[in-house]
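Slide 14.
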Amino acid sequence: MSLPHLATPFSIGPVAIRNRVVLAPMSGVTDLPFREIAWSWGAGLVVTEMIASRELVMSRGESWARLKRTGLGPHMVQLAGREPQWMAQAARIAADNGADIIDINMGCPAKKVTGGYSGSALMRDPELALSLIEATVQAVDVPVTLKMRLGWDENSINAPEIARQAQEAGVQLITIHGRTRMQFYEGRADWDAIRSVRDAVSVPLIANGDVCTPGDAREILARSGADAVMVGRGAQGRPWHAGTLAGHAPPSERAQREIIASHYEAMLQFYGREAGLRHARKHLGWYLDRLAPDVESDAKAAIFRSTDPDDVMRRMMEALTAGPAAAREAA
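Slide 15: predicted structure.
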C-alpha cells in the first residue's frame, strides 16, 4: 500500500484539512502567536493549547484566551476534563465561539493533569472515558476527535479498544502518541505499536511522537499505517517546521530572524508587556538552541534577564548573526 503524501489534503468529518502535518497542542507553547506563525508557514492544521473544560465554563484562568481564534483555517479546540457534564458544556461554548473541531485530551502525562484524573489518567478508567466521549459528541454538531497515548503503562496498552469504542460513539479522528503515560517523553516513541489502533478503527488516524525530520514522517506513516502525522516538540524553536515537513520551503536565515522578531512582538501584544516577557523567554531559548547553539552562556543569560524589549531583540539578533550561519549567509 502506498503511503499518503504529506502535502495532500484529507478530511475530519466534513472539515477539509489542507495537508497531513498537524501541529500538536502543547500547553505553554502553542498559544495564538505560535499557531499563527505555524499556519502562515504551511502547517496543515493547528490546535489550541489544552483548555480545562470546567475552567472554560466558569470563565476562569486563561481559558478564554486559549479559545481565541483568528483566520487560521479550521479552528480546532482541545478540551480536557474528567466530568462529562463539564466537557459537554465546554464543547458547546467552544462550538458557539467558532470551533470547527473539538479534540478531547486523553494524552497529557503531566502530573498536575493526571492528578486531577484528566488527560492520560482517563485511560485507567475506560468506562469514565467513554462516558466523557459520548457526552462531548452528543453536545455539538462539529466533529469530535480524540488524542491519547498507547496506555497508562506497558501493562495496560488499551488504546486500540478505547479507539474502537470512541469511533462507535461518533469520534471522527484518533491521534496516538506512541508512548505510554508512564514513559512521559523518555526513550523512543513506538511507531509500530500505533498500527494496532489503525487495525481497530476506520476513521483517520494521526501518528505522533518523535517526528522531527521528513524521514521520520515517512517512516512513522509506513510503520503505523496512519493517515497523517503530528509534530510537537520538534517545532519548538522553529514554528515553521510543520509546514516544512509538508513540503513547503523553510524560511531563509534572514526570514527566520524576522519571524523571531515578529513572534516576540506578538507575544508582548497578546499577553501584555510584563507577562509577555516571561512567556517569551522559553521561546527565545528554543530559538537559540536551534539556530545559535554555540552562543555563550553569558550572552544568553543577558537576553533572559533584560526587561527592555528593544534590548532583548538587539541582543537576540546579535547572537543569531554572530555564528557560522551568519557567515554563510554573508558569503
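Speaker note: Residues 253-324 form one domain.
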